[in-house]
Amino acid sequence: INNTATTTYTFTPSAGQCALPVTQTVTVDQPVIPTFAQVAAICSGGTFTLPATSLNGIPGNWLPAINNTATTSYTFTPSAGQCALPVTQTVTVNQPVTPTFAQVAAICSGGTFTLPTSSINGIPGSWSPAISNTATTTYTFTPSIGQCALPVTQTVTVNQPVTPTFAQVAAICSGGSFTLPTSSINGIPGSWSPVISNTATTTYTFTPSIGQCALPVTQTVTVNQPVTPTFSADITNGCAPLSVNFTNTTPNSINCIWTLSDGTILSGISTVTNVFTTDGCFDITLSSLGSDGCISNYTESNIVCIEVSPVADFSMDNANLTEDDYGVNFVNTSIGAVDYIWDFGDNSFLNTDENPYHEFGFIESTYTIMLIAISNLGCIDTAFSSIDMLEQLLYFVPNTFTPDGDLKNNTFQPVFTSGFDPYNFKMLIFNRWGEILFETNNAAIGWDGTYDGIYVQDGTYTWKIEFKVKENDKKYFLSGHVNLFR
Prior knowledge:
There is one protein chain. This protein is mainly beta. It has a 5-stranded mixed sheet, with no helix packed on it. The protein is rod-shaped, with a radius of gyration of 75 Å.
């Protein structure tokens, strides 16, 4: 018998059998190899089936039981009666890949970002839900069909923008200075626009630096415009001393300083008073501190003019009057005057001539003359001088005396009755040879006709007398002869 090939066998009857030999062919079929389509690899946890009949019609069954978590080789055993060989098929079970992605950086609400459609390790897929740029959201990546990959998630943080905070810049006065900080109180760097102006109130916008999740903010810096001070004076010209009231008319003043061009400084919000005692024109500057904290200045030039006071003065051609000479010509030498008043001190009417002539009576021994000089604005100055009425100089010098001891005419001396200054007197007596026989400074002491206590001879002698009048420095120098008889 051959069980591997079809064979024809001959049957020979045993000896003694009257029988014919016969043949029989035993067919030995060659076993069929069942064929199957290869089961595609699956991802762990996926599903697949193994067909119960091969592509070439061989029924059978598979062992071991299907496992969808690991790669496994399965054996197909044809059903009984099938001339077919067992076959195996390995079903690959792939372990799923985890898609990897770079973390999307946090954005500021309203910003933009993208989620890639393919992972770093090459897994294509899609994300859900739809992108939102206004709220933090967790997105799920689902690998495309056929990808043995796990779904993954990524949370994209959407930061709500911070509002930068700044201290309010205090109001300034025009021309003052201020700064705008380049970083907010809560740490947001950035820049301001427009360029700082210190002359006008301006609203500035702070723009956070790139990369800062912060909102632009504005701040208005108030620039106060100073009010030009104004004031008035109740009088602007006159004669020294002149009292002037200055009144501040500047609105909203809370303090004022008044500075005069002569260096005088006054303070007062409403009205201040200054007495001008010197001539000239004066500027005044008002510095006003307003309720907004701004100081402003205003200068009024030559607001007050004090007239140069006149200078009264005069001269006269006769300062010593006598009975023979009692008229005086007055020469007015005043400066800066246009009107004049003369008072001659003798109760006469007041004279308004510029250069008057006046005759005095013999009422007083001394007259005080007053000249009042008056300017255009009525400024006055007064000058005084005096005129003396001199006593009449009366004297007598005898030409003979008789020192004979009879108590009559015993001494020689001048006789003064008026106008004589007894403290300025000198008398000398000379003989014919010029020798001084007698000398005295006392007008009350006369020459008694002796020289060193001895009587001189009768004869003619020379005398010299010097004296001054009482009222002035006028001196007289007299000389003559006297006869001596006994």
